């Protein structure tokens, strides 16, 4: 089986998107499949048309991003040409495009001209991600147009994968046949991220966490993550638990505002910003944290989409506390694998965290149950099996149709 993945961006850039992609490609290779990837214009400036990163092959699109509809159309056309060239070189059995929808549009153009089956995988709806990132407005003309385009692409793809039940349910409500959709949930590569490292006393001392009860967040600083609510909860948490400290690792669009909020907080001395760290160093910071907190705000994006970071925390044997939104409820059973608290409510956050820190009697069992959940249900070595029946069905159909002769064609 030869699969060509069509991506918005990939390694060596670091994001939740690239980490999921890496896990998929590595797990597929371990299964004996041959994989390669094509990245789009959003990868940015690239030196080589084809490069190897972490043992994976990436075909790059040499195209400058331009704004507006005309710029987006030009980007799709350039991306489609690069996908076609990668098809000529790699000769895949399946095209597997990953959101956003622009990637699906470019891949569809190639798939139809070459008779290749296309799987379209949605990690979040682009219109909702724009609202969550503060670059779009719910219900605007652009929002409605993007939603319509997403539905159009889904109808034309040969199969659709989504990362959670929330996205699947939304597509079914749009009239998409549920049999066409498979859920391929976020997971953890336990061969890379499954063995917690020992606490580093020197790093703890450097950050002033020697004798602390440490609450942590490790990830991207977007508005929808609700980190402003977590910072707002710190005065009440410190009042209840004087040794409580907040460790924030990462960065993003909200970083400046969050640092300013923390500087003005009565609990400023209890808040630590580390900045971004290489993914290979992340485990050192997980080892310093008692409870990982994920206070996502309540909105369509967070109700529909499951995050990756709580799974990483569970794999590291850490307690997880998160807001009670749909995406978290697919991962966390309150009182069993984690703690859920009301979203958009700093007082609820402070109360939940203080309660966890005050009673450690059930910590070991909860961490063990959460870790077992990741091993059994969110391990990429087993998650990857969900793609196999889709690929087999589509390639069998393509063989019967005889529509693709593995011969280069122009685009």
From TrEMBL:
Protein name listed in UniProt: Glycosyl transferase family 1
Alphabetical list of InterPro entries matching this protein: Glyco_trans_4-like_N (IPR028098), Glycosyltransferase_grp1 (IPR050194), PEP-CTERM/XrtA_GlycosylTrfase (IPR024004)
Gene Ontology molecular function terms on file: hexosyltransferase activity
Keywords: Transferase
Highest rank taxon of the organism: Bacteria
Signal sequence annotation: none
Pfam families (UniProt xref): Glyco_trans_1_4, Glyco_trans_4_4
Domain Glycosyltransferase subfamily 4-like N-terminal: 16-187
Organism: Sphingomonas taxi
């Amino acid at each position: 089986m030869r699969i060509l993945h069509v991506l918005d961006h990939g390694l060596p850039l670091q994001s939740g998107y690239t980490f999921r992609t890496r896990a998929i490609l590595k797990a597929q290779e371990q299964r004996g499949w041959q994989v390669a990837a094509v990245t789009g214009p959003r990868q940015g400036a690239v030196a080589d048309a084809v490069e190897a990163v972490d043992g994976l092959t990436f075909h790059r699109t040499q195209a400058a991003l331009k704004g507006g509809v005309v710029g987006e159309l030009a980007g799709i056309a350039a991306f489609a040409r690069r996908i076609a060239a990668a098809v000529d070189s790699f000769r895949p059995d399946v095209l597997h495009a990953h959101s956003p929808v622009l990637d699906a549009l470019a891949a569809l153009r190639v798939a139809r001209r070459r008779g290749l089956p296309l799987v379209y995988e949605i990690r979040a709806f682009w219109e909702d991600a724009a609202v969550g990132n503060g670059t779009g407005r719910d219900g605007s003309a652009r929002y409605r147009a993007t939603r319509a385009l997403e539905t159009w692409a889904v109808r034309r793809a040969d199969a659709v994968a989504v990362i959670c039940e929330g996205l699947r349910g939304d597509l079914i409500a749009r009239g998409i046949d549920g049999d066409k959709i498979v859920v391929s949930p976020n997971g953890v590569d336990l061969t890379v991220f499954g063995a917690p490292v020992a606490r580093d006393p020197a790093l703890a001392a450097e950050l002033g966490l020697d004798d602390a009860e440490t609450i942590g967040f490790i990830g991207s600083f977007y508005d929808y993550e609700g980190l402003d609510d977590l910072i707002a909860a710190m005065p009440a948490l410190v009042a209840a638990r004087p040794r409580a400290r907040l460790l924030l690792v990462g960065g993003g669009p909200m970083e400046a505002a969050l640092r300013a909020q923390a500087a003005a907080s009565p609990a400023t001395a209890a808040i630590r910003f580390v900045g971004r760290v290489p993914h290979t160093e992340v485990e050192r910071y997980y080892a310093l944290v008692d409870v990982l907190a994920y206070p996502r705000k309540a909105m369509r994006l967070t109700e529909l989409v499951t995050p990756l970071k709580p799974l990483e925390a569970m794999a590291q044997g850490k307690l997880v506390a998160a807001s009670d939104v749909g995406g978290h409820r697919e991962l966390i059973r309150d009182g069993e694998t984690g703690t859920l608290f009301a979203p958009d409510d700093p007082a609820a956050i402070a109360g939940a965290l203080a309660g966890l820190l005050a009673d450690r009697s059930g910590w070991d069992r909860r961490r063990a149950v959460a870790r077992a959940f990741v091993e059994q249900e969110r391990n990429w070595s087993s998650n990857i099996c969900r793609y196999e029946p889709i690929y087999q069905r589509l390639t069998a159909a393509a063989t019967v149709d005889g529509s693709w002769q593995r011969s280069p064609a122009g685009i």
